[in-house]
Prior knowledge:
By secondary structure, the chain is an alpha/beta fold.
Amino acid sequence: MSYAKVLCVGLVGVTGHLVEVEADLAVGLPAVVISGLPDTALHEARDRVRAAVVNSGQRWPNRRITLNLLPATLPKFGSAFDLAIAAALLGGSGELPLLPLEGVVVLGELGLDGTVRPVRGVLPMVAAAAQAGVERVIVPVGNAAEAAVIPGVRVRAVDSLHRLVAFVRDGAPLLDPPCAEPPPMVDGPDLAEVAGQQLGRRALEVAAAGGHHVALLGPPGAGKTMLAQRLPSILPELDDEAALEVTALHSVAGLLPPGVRLLRRPPFQAPHHTASVASLVGGGSGLARPGAVSLAHRGVLFLDEAPEFSKGALEALRQPLEDGHVQLSRSGGSTRYPARTQLVLAANPCPCAQPGGDAHCECSPLVRRRYLGRLSGPLLDRIDVQIRLLPVRAAELMATGDDVEPSATVAARVVAARQAAAARWTDLGRRLNAEVGGPHLRRPPWRLPASVTSELRGRLDCGSLSARGFDRVIRMAWTIADLDGRDRPDREDVREATQLRTGEAT
């Protein structure tokens, strides 16, 4: 037999596609040709597979070998096709009977000594295989834990090409995925460690309950960074759907910790202010990889010293914040990554940021305006909560903290508020107040009476609040009502939401 076929999966972003790896061996000068839009890593598979086959004790066929990856119009990236190529090639040469691999997806990168190494993106690959009706997959032993997450798929692992050959030829057993173990509990930052800042704590709780974006403005040492770092501690654990999305993104980016099946904690990304546009929203040669805004999907993206970021990087966040995804087009193709994250901006009031505040500031009014002006109006208009933090007083700093609520107490209220919101918006396919479109909130049965929104309407008419800001205040009012256990916002809820939006809260 001079022809063989083995199933594999290719990734475009986080979307997997079933790929048929064909091998045809013909009479002619010995050569290996790969077709089907392979990238550089796939072109180099010729040398990797050859060395792995020979070093695994198998005979390399000295014939003209044509390898084709179907569908040929789909770009192929990465080294996950190595093991499937080796199996198809050995099957086409007559060395292996490929009946045991019929209907089985084979994934893995080959080392020159024949070892099978883990690859990126196994979780979305196995999910795509399951969606295509495949019930059995063979993956590298280092990826077995994450592959076993997908239900309805029988996962087996290999650590070498020799083990796969022994399974196909002699029926030798493959490796089983490791048993699931609960991840170790890691004590993270707690809200109880924040001195004072009751306004900041309230803003953080509202933001966590409704999924709202936050901007924190204040002098150095006021607690902006401490508050932002503790936002994940009051967010609920990810449900199965969200955990699969987050784990798939980290798997594609190669950031999934070894042996981890699902990431249950909301991710936290805090890029440095020198980060480029590509590192924030995604980029790279060929097919763009996910950036920080996607790696923070269902979690928190924290930009400390936000005015120090480049203007292009900040403005690139506007579309993901509005749409909940980022569409990236590059020479190698176009891909879409989810980016439904909570953005937290922290900024000093001026470049010098003297601890004494305005009394000791060395910046002119023009310098101060230019500094904060780096945060454009259209970007800030998408930030729901915008507050100014005052310096911490000595009495607050030296307090014992016995009466300060820890993260666990606040998190319990956040969970209850999110459950109320999810039950209310289930018919709209939404889970958080921040995800609900403004038109739904302005139409019955969710439209608030004029007596409740009269002050807000006045701000809109006089131009101190945009239409987008109007909708965002209404969303926050619903969140405040959920936190307080009421089924609808009242006038005071709208007033507090307006204060949190405009920074006029005291």
